[in-house]
Amino acid sequence: MDLQQEQEACWKLELDKVTKLDPSKKKKKKKKKLFIREDATYDSEPDYGYAELLSRVFDMLREEEVSTERPRTVMMRRPQLLAQGTQITVCLDFAHLCTTMHRKPGHVIKFLLGQMETKGWLNKQHQLEMKGLVSSQHFQAVFQRYIDAFVICSCCKSPDTALAEDNGISTLSLWFGSIDQRTESPVNMELFNFKSHVLGGALSHVLQVSYLSVLELGTFVSLALFVLCSAVFMILTQHRALANSHGVNSEEEWEMVQRKGQQFTLNGQPFYVNGFNTYWMMTLAADNSTRGKVTDVFQQASAVGLTVGRTWAFNDGQWRALQKSPSVYDEDVFKALDFVVSEAGKYKIRLILSLVNNWNDYGGKAQYVKWGNASGLNLTSDDDFFTNPTLRDFYKSHVRTVLNRVNTFTNITYKNDPTIFAWELMNEPRCPSDPSGDKLQSWIQEMAVFVKSLDAKHMVEIGLEGFYGPSAPARTKFNPNPYAAQVGTDFIRNNQALGVDFASVHVYPDAWISPAVSDTFLEFTNSWMQAHVEDAETYLGMPVLFTEFGVSAHDPGFNTSFRDMMLNTVYKMTLNSTRKGGAGAGSLVWQVFPQGAEFMDDGYAVYLTRAHTASKIISLQSKRLAIFNSLCGWRCKWGCKKKNHTALDALLSHEDEL
């Protein structure tokens, strides 16, 4: 039974309770003479007997015309904030919010600005302008406090209230009507977090008559009506708890991960990452028949403690394209990406969103070159993507569109959404036409600053594989082959560009050294990872995240035992850095798959529901990192005396498993 059916069932149950109290179905009792107070005055109101008075209560309830087919719901859209530069933040729909609550804008403004300790005013469009940058999450939290204090009735929890002042004191009074404000895309439990099946107008009548009954009939009727109202409220409270348990909206603060020195931090604590890749989620979410696979991915990843996922926020000119042509988008596919981000948030998984591909899959830079030629340019190389001004503008337009997108499921702008861990400029950029690396370096410098100009809150990374180039000839010995130094990338130089927050590295010995599985894979992985952690600490002063690693089932000599050894090797290297509070910030396995998505498998898929050993290894790494993240400040080392050594030692005793 879904939530809608449960709510309807609850409402029908409530009507059943009302019917049982119908006096027409009770046994006749001997009439008792009513006691009337001598000093009571009722003007022209007639005197009613018990049965007549109770009948009036239910007549009033019926007159409200409450439908049992669809519960009445009190909802409000999220406040829509827009930053104007770095000095002003505007609440675009402030007037609508005040109208919905039936509150004067001046009263709301006074509370909000006082709580946020800033200055503000109404502009000519009746929008609230506030000084400084105000995050959407902070504004919503303060707005919720206003609703709790000045809108919701503290007795019956009804939002159907009016604010009245008497000698300078504001008091809430119940209305005998109901708020009937709805939006096209309502967000359940967002601000009111309250379902008003009966409490809207009908319950206020019950409360009114309950008051009259105290005067006329004594405590018995009053108590009966109070029990009825209490039953209604208890059922509604249960629905609220049920909605929260389904993850509709958690009141827990969902903060953005930041970088501090060579570590990621969250709420002042270190944030070492155990994550995963699943690149195809937007594509499958665009079809209702396969959308459930996206939910399966997040459910299974969350079950083994994975905290960061990486996926594509691009599909250019291909099947189910997000961007069909420059700046022309398929809204259904964009809604699919909205769904992916929304689902990630429900399972407390953050996302690295990559913005374009170096390769032809899903369009990539080759598709941009095709668009350029179709618009009259004479381009001869895919690497013109990095240098041609028109193609750079095409890319910038796509970045601007994605970052300013308002999620149709959460109503949160992408650039304000803490579910997004970081933006990735490109998946595995290469510019082999310029081994010097100057072309790619110029592109990185321009695009990293451009992304930061649109979104200063989120982190930015390039998407590099990690190859060393001309700026560090002594480090090229760590490259997997000589060609790697000729593809136009330069790990240290590239990551020193302004606007880059952390470095990325990929680990694919089977693609770079030899397709045949051997122990050299593990030896290379150790030296490759260690070299990049050292460089991140010595030259870059930033975290390094190993954003892809894996071994393919298509490799000659592959077996799951070797795949598990690869997992152990990467995790052990990450853990060694974690123990020292080092720059090795974590790793993301390529890639996690649910059952039923085999048709998208590139050979590297890890099916958590059937790869039991791999799942245990991944889960153990998650537990170790989670304990470290939760117990220390950002500069703390593994040997900190404040740590819970019992828990840590218990996990570290399984050294044979990592």
Strand count: 21
Q: What's the shape?
A: globular
Q: What is the CATH homology-level superfamily of the largest domain?
A: Glycosidases
Question: Whole-number average pLDDT?
Answer: 80
Spatial strand sequence of the major β-sheet: 16-15-14-11-10-19-18-17
Return the CATH architecture of the largest domain: Alpha-Beta Barrel
Instruction: Give the biggest sheet.
Output: 8 strands, parallel
SS-based structural class? alpha/beta
According to CATH, the fold-level topology of the largest domain is TIM Barrel
Q: How many domains make up the 3D coordinates?
A: 2
**Percentage of β-strand residues:** 5-15%
The low-confidence parts are 6-44, 65-74, 174-222, 236-252
| Beginning-to-end CA distance, first to last residue | 43 Å
Helix content: 25-40%
The number of distinct helices, counting runs of at least 4 residues, comes to 19
Radius of gyration from the alpha-carbon trace, in angstroms: 31 Å
CATH class of the largest domain: Alpha Beta
Oligomer: single chain
GO molecular function, one term: mannan endo-1,4-beta-mannosidase activity
Main location: secreted
Subunit structure: Eukaryotic translation initiation factor 2 eIF2 is a heterotrimeric complex composed of an alpha, a beta and a gamma subunit.
Family: Belongs to the eIF-2-beta/eIF-5 family. Belongs to the glycosyl hydrolase 5 (cellulase A) family.
Describe this structure in words.
One of its GO terms (molecular function) is mannan endo-1,4-beta-mannosidase activity. This is Eukaryotic translation initiation factor 2 subunit beta. Its EC number is 3.2.1.78. The chain has about 650 residues and is an alpha/beta fold. It has 2 domains: about 80-195, Defensin A-like (2-Layer Sandwich), CATH 3.30.30; about 265-655, Glycosidases (TIM Barrel, Alpha-Beta Barrel), CATH 3.20.20.80. It has helices spanning about 5-20, 50-65, 95-100, 105-115, 135-150, 200-215, 220-245, 280-285, 290-305, 330-345, 365-375, 390-405, 440-455, 490-495, 510, 520-540, 560-580, 610-630, 645-650, and strands at about 80-85, 90, 120, 130, 160-165, 170-175, 260, 265, 270, 275, 310, 325, 330, 350-355, 420-425, 460, 505, 545-550, 585-590, 590-595, 605. Helix 17 (about 560-580) links the parallel strand 18 (about 545-550) and strand 19. The relative contact order is 0.08.
